[in-house]
Amino acid sequence: MASTEPLIVFTTYDIGGYQSTDEASNLYTIRPDGSGRTAVTTFAPGAERATQPTWTADGRLLFNQVAGTDDTTRSVALINTDGTGLRTVLDAEAVGPDNRPHPRMR
């Protein structure tokens, strides 16, 4: 389900600041006035990480999904703002080992 209201997307423990960490890294949305903070993903500490989010034209979120014990396995995923519909759009093999995709829609 795509969002129809104005929202900001952000992530915790983004890959740019924390190259390798066991901290949970998730996507959140929040209204521009600071209200309504909502978790989109619920990855646990030491699990996958959601980083580098961006909006798609239809209101979904495209992001870098990071896995592996040293955070080197990366894929590009798509998710609805309500947390449903998570799917990989570019798998780790296509991204390549140790590469850092920064997905953006055009």
In brief, what are we looking at here?
With 106 residues, the chain is mainly beta. The protein has one helix spanning 92-95; strands at 8-11, 27-30, 38-39, 49-55, 61-67, 73-79, 87-90.
Task: Describe this protein's structure.
With 106 residues, this protein is mainly β. It has one domain. It is built from one helix and seven strands, in the order βββββββα. A hairpin with a 5-residue loop joins strand 4 (49-55) and strand 5 (61-67).
Quaternary state, please?
A: single chain
Q: Tally the helices: what do you get? A: 1
As a percent range, the share of helical residues equals under 10%
Q: Hey, roughly how much beta strand do the residues contain? A: 25-35%
Q: Which strand order spans the largest sheet, edge to edge or round the barrel?
A: 4-5-6-7
- Low-confidence region ranges: none
Give the overall shape: globular
The run of helices and strands is: EEEEEEEH
Give a short account of the largest sheet.
Answer: 4 strands, antiparallel
What structural class is derived from the secondary structure elements?
mainly beta
> Residue-averaged pLDDT, rounded?
82
Radius of gyration: 13 Å
Span from first to last CA?
21 Å
Q: How many structural domains can be distinguished in the coordinates?
A: 1
Beta strand count: 7
